[in-house]
Amino acid sequence: MTANRGQQIGVPFRLFGNPTRTNILLALAVLTESYPRELARIFDAPVSAVQAAIERLELERVVATRLIGRGRRVTLNPAFYGARELRELLVKLADGQPGFAARMDQVARRRPRRRTKPQ
Q: Of 67, 19, 65, which is closest to residue 43 (Cα–Cα)?
């Protein structure tokens, strides 16, 4: 059931092993940085499935993670030997997917609101 949920919203093919991994890589190319819960929310996938996919991608050194406070931030690994070419490919794939850009636009505000700004 979870594999179908990931396929409905994001990319319907398994270019990088499975739809969850492919969706994560596409989202990271478009968003530059994210975290597992946000990616799970975007693709309506279980957080555990997203975390497992990120761990596998990290072992392959395609993505890099770092802890900021209690949160784990995920990016495409700039030290990966084909990082620039991979990002270009992923951006082109994302542009060719109907509805993918709209899904990325639904991502919540990326930084905190200024304290002095009126509500």
A: 19
Amino acid at 11: V
d(CA 13, CA 26): 12
The angle, 0 to 180 degrees and rounded to 10, between the axes of the packed helices 36-43 and 19-31 is 110
Sheet holding 63-68, edge to edge: 33-34, 71-76, 63-68
CATH of domain 2-105: 1.10.10.10
Residue 12 has pLDDT above 70, yes or no: no
CA dist 3 and 46 (Å) reads 10
Domain residue extents for the chain: 2-105
| Digit-coded pLDDT (tens) for 41-55 | 888 899 999 999 999
Residue 68 phi/psi, 5° resolution? -125, 105
Of 55, 58, 53, 57, residue with least CA distance to 43: 53
Contact 25/43 with Cβ under 8 angstroms?
no
